[in-house]
From TrEMBL:
This is DNA polymerase Y family protein. Transmembrane segments: none annotated. InterPro entries: DNA/RNA_pol_sf, SulA_CellDiv_inhibitor. Keywords: DNA damage. PANTHER family: BLR3025 PROTEIN, BLR3025 PROTEIN-RELATED. It comes from Reyranella aquatilis.
Length: 549
């Protein structure tokens, strides 16, 4: 049975300004103002302004007539949105399934959208799927009530006005949080949403304004008034939204909740009787959480690819950091070494009251492997030398995108034989690389990014070069080996269907390994055989492609 908590902040905008230590918002009547429908109107008002008779959507001129000394400020939907995001991150301490309610006006990107969404009062809301999480506060219904009370109490300490309701469906919890008259009605027992919703106004069904106006004109003011009515006439009169909302609230139609962050596959938490702040205590708690999480990995037969540690501080803020691994890993000491690289970046603030360790990404465990596979023997570790551990530590310091390995590719072109790939990538399948394995010693140890044009002198056009000039420096060749002819991969598709320019990838290349009189060794190629041109000059060109050891 699902259990959903709807968290409503009816005065989010005013609470945010009061929390910012703005004296006028605590001691005097104040409101936020936006330009809407051709005139400035009030959006959010504080308790002093409400006691004076002001209401949201009221024109500023009318409000000034009632309260000349009203303090006003421009509305800031983006600032309200950032506060809601921060509260949602804090609510992860109760459940990993937290969604921002899209019906709140504070969530709109601009004022006009906020007004049209019906959230003109500067409010906002969250939806929490606490299914399976209430046992942390007690067994059965007592644990659910304790979680609800703890949630409201902690938010009230942060000077946030809120109402929280729990029910089996998001629609029922949403309606109770906003329209329940008694505090006791905010908790709906399991399978009790039909009776709990019957006395609530139809505004609790989250309907469009035209549908609400028509229902009120027809005298259908309570949700219970819709229960005995035939469904066919309701669909013909109001469309499918009315019955869909009723069915979602009663639980006969599923209403999915999309979390703001993907829930982790595994997670464990540790609460402290007294807040901790020393780095040694945080490291010890991380080690304890990691040991518990690794036991979960062993039972499930998986290994972690990404881990995240979250510190929930006493001031309501949250600090997070994460690590990644290049292979599935469930070795507690090795994972703790990776966390030691990041724990120093965490700030305990005034103290940490809760820590949660989660695994957002896991993979099936395929056995123990501590080293990268050897190129000559794919799948067989080249010694237990801790290469994987080193790669993981480098990825933490330099960034995962900056730690790569070279993999062979099924190609005979020198510039395509190897490719830079993430360190976690598997070796390429055997192919052309195996067929030219006997030429590995003949290939250069370093290739230029682009072949560079050189001037070559040869005794006979088809003979190896006797001298070449590169970058204004002449090299006299004393030894030469070749040619090795390499043709273009004509079967490889091109984006435009044509061959690349001959200066970078000629159709046919004749490669020579040469050594000059200074001992330098170079890899030269000619772009095809010599062919006499109309003016009697040869058309073949020479390029320097790399350097041999």
């Amino acid at each position: 049975m699902k259990r959903i908590v709807s968290l409503w902040f009816p005065k989010l905008s005013t609470d945010r300004r009061a929390r910012a230590s703005k004296k006028d918002w605590s001691d005097r009547a104040a409101a936020t103002v936006v330009w809407h429908e051709g005139c400035p109107r009030l959006v959010a008002i504080n308790p002093h302004a409400r006691a004076a008779g002001l209401r949201p959507r009221m024109r500023l001129a009318d409000a000034r007539a009632l309260l000349p000394d009203l303090v006003t400020e421009a509305g800031e939907p983006q600032a309200d949105l950032r506060l809601v995001e921060a509260i949602a991150g804090w609510c992860d301490r109760y459940t990993p399934w937290v969604a921002i309610d899209p019906t709140g006006g504070a969530l709109a990107p601009d004022v006009e959208t906020a007004c049209s969404a019906g959230g003109f009062g500067g409010d906002a809301g969250l939806l929490l799927d606490v299914t399976g999480c209430t046992h942390l506060f007690g067994e059965g219904e007592s644990g659910e009530r304790a979680l609800l009370a703890d949630l409201v109490t902690r938010l009230s300490r942060r000077d946030l006005s809120c109402r929280a309701a729990m029910a089996d469906t998001a629609g029922a919890a949403w309606a109770l949080a906003r329209f329940a008259e008694r505090q006791a009605d905010l908790f709906c027992p399991a399978r009790g949403q039909r009776d709990a919703l019957a006395a609530l106004p139809v505004e609790g069904l989250r309907l469009e304004p035209p549908i609400l106006e028509t229902l009120l004109k027809l005298g259908l003011r309570r949700i219970g008034d819709l229960y005995p009515m035939p469904r066919g006439p309701l669909v013909r009169r109001f469309g499918d939204q009315l019955l869909r909302r009723v069915d979602q609230a009663l639980g006969t139609l599923d209403e999915p909740i999309e979390p703001r962050r993907l829930p982790p596959a595994f997670r464990t938490r540790l609460a402290f009787a007294e807040p901790i702040g020393r780095a040694e205590d945080i490291a010890a708690a991380t080690s304890r959480l990691l040991a518990a999480l690794c036991r979960q990995f062993e039972q499930a037969g998986v290994g972690a690819r990404q881990l995240e540690i979250a510190l929930y501080r006493v001031d309501g803020s949250v600090d997070r950091t994460s690590i990644g691994t290049s292979r599935p890993n469930r070795d507690n000491p090795k994972l703790m070494k990776l966390f030691e690289e990041r724990l120093g970046q965490l700030d305990a603030g005034f103290g940490v009251e809760l820590m949660i360790l989660s695994a957002p990404e896991v993979e099936a465990w395929s056995g123990t492997q501590d080293a990268l596979p050897d190129q000559d023997s794919p799948g067989i570790a080249s010694g237990m030398d801790g290469t994987i551990d080193l790669a993981d530590r480098l990825a933490l310091r330099l960034g995962a995108e900056n730690v790569v390995r070279l993999l062979t590719r099924d190609s005979h072109l020198p510039e395509r034989v190897q490719i830079a790939a993430p360190v976690s990538s598997s070796p390429a399948a055997e192919g052309a690389w195996r067929r030219i394995a006997n030429l590995k010693n003949a290939r250069p140890t370093r290739l230029l990014q682009r072949p560079e044009l050189v001037e070559v002198t040869a005794f006979v056009p088809d003979d190896p070069p006797s001298m070449f000039r590169w970058r204004r420096h002449a090299h006299r060749i004393v030894r030469a080996d070749g040619p090795e002819r390499i043709a273009d991969e004509w079967w490889r598709p091109r984006p435009d269907g044509s061959r690349p320019p001959a200066a970078t990838l000629p159709p046919v290349r004749d490669y020579y390994r040469v050594e000059d009189d200074d001992g330098g060794r170079f890899w030269l190629f000619r772009d095809g055989p010599y062919q006499p041109a109309a003016n009697g000059q040869p058309t073949a060109r020479w390029f320097l492609h790399g350097f041999c050891a």
